[in-house]
Amino acid sequence: MRILLLNPINRTYVIMPSLGLGYLAAVLRKQGHVVTVLNCVKERLTHEAFSVLLQTEQYDVIGFQVFTYDLNPVKRHLEIVKQVSPATVTIAGGPHPSGDPERTLAYLEKLDFAFQGEAEIGLPLLLENLCGRERNLACIPGLVWRNNGTILANPPCFVEDLDTIPLPAWDLLRPENYPEAPHGAFTKGFPTSPIIITRGCASGCTFCAGSRINGYRIRRRSLGNVLAELRHLAERGIREFHIEDENFTESSEFVLEFCQRLSEEHLGMSWSLPSGVRLDNLTREMLTAMAKAGCYSLAVGIEFGSDRLLRMTGKGLTLEMIRERVKLFDGLGIKLTGFFMFGIPGETREEMADTVRLALELPLDRAQFNNFMPLPGSLEWEKLSKAGRLNAVDWDRFFVHDVPYTDGVVSAKELKWIQRNALIRFYFRPRIMIGVIREIRSFRHMMYLVKRFADALT
User: Fold this and answer.
1) What domain range includes position 362?
2) Which phi and psi (to 5°) does residue 171 adopt?
3) What CATH number is given to the structural domain containing 238?
4) Peptide bond into 17 cis (omega under 30)
5) pTM of the predicted model over 0.85
6) Helix crossing, 430-438 with 412-427: angle to 10°?
7) Residue 454 pLDDT class (50, 70, 90 cuts)
8) pLDDT for the residue 14
9) What is the helix (H) or strand (E) element at residue 295, kind and residue range?
10) Of 213, 224, 270, which is closest to residue 247 (Cα–Cα)?
11) Is 152 helix (H, G, I), strand (E, B) or coil?
12) Residue ranges of the alpha helices (H) in 165-265?
């Protein structure tokens, strides 16, 4: 079968290869399919150009990676597919279908199938069913499908041994061709590439849906498997890798061995952790080893300047712990980014002000102030669902610098003002501004940063 896997046209300013599509492409090629991977934003594709592409290429199957802010963009893509190539089978996977499987298929009425959770096992089985005369869709793990007008969702299945999954199809992803617009905004070496080492999350943060996508149990690739991938990327000319999973630091023993083995490889690659790891896992020994092995930047999830909110959201942190743990970075040369959030249901204006004060107090190099987004599958999402409040969520504003939902304590306009004020107060300080300027790698990178900051303010 001829298969197109794509990231849809959307409003994101992070332009990076999709590891999820890369892994699926590798699995499907091993099954004998002809696979193309397309990042519509990277290629600056318009809907008209997408329509022409479908008329030219004639794909049997098109698979979409769907984050929540992709929901309406994918709806538009599906309309084009069914108009231009009605026989093409359409499939969606990713965070949004994983967190809200049945409603995703109901909302995307032109979508044929969806997957919740990991799809490396289920998607090949679905394609075998589509090629055969008889179908047994009920036995395909993670599949979301229609049966006589009823939407059914099969339980997901998570890959136990991550080493059994082929490495991402890097020849299709071509990370060396991506612009200077990575996750985290900054790089030390370029070109860059994302990688993941673990899947799963055992944390109980109420605003996160990570466990719905990859399960609760943390699984880890072997060091040999990871280093083989890094050697391949280095041979492709990649000068920096970004570890995108949030539980890389869950095992101190693994991190120390990884750093030692990485240093022995002499790959000449810098690296960072832009997705935000847990502060309570970090030790001085771990951070020292990471710095010696080439890690220069790390993000941590702090979220709130209120002990009440930290308890309420299951962060497992206290303000005292936060202040103590950030001191571990002193003198190591690792730039520290803090993630913060405004507008979670139940938060007061005073607590939002406390969050800003904490961000200004801590010795951070960068800060990201996000407005609350009720991520499908999270406990906060479930609360809104039970309260009948999901109709108040604006899918077109489901973005960290927008306001997709407010509980009414503050208006959307005021919440945006609080976020804008926090960004200005944090970044318009001489130490921070000079640090950012020093990290600009090119004129193109500078224009990307200006666009990203302007978008956050407006």
Assistant:
1) 174-457
2) -70, -25
3) 3.80.30.20
4) no
5) yes
6) 80
7) confident
8) 87
9) strand 295-303
10) 213
11) strand
12) 170-173, 210-214, 223-235, 252-265
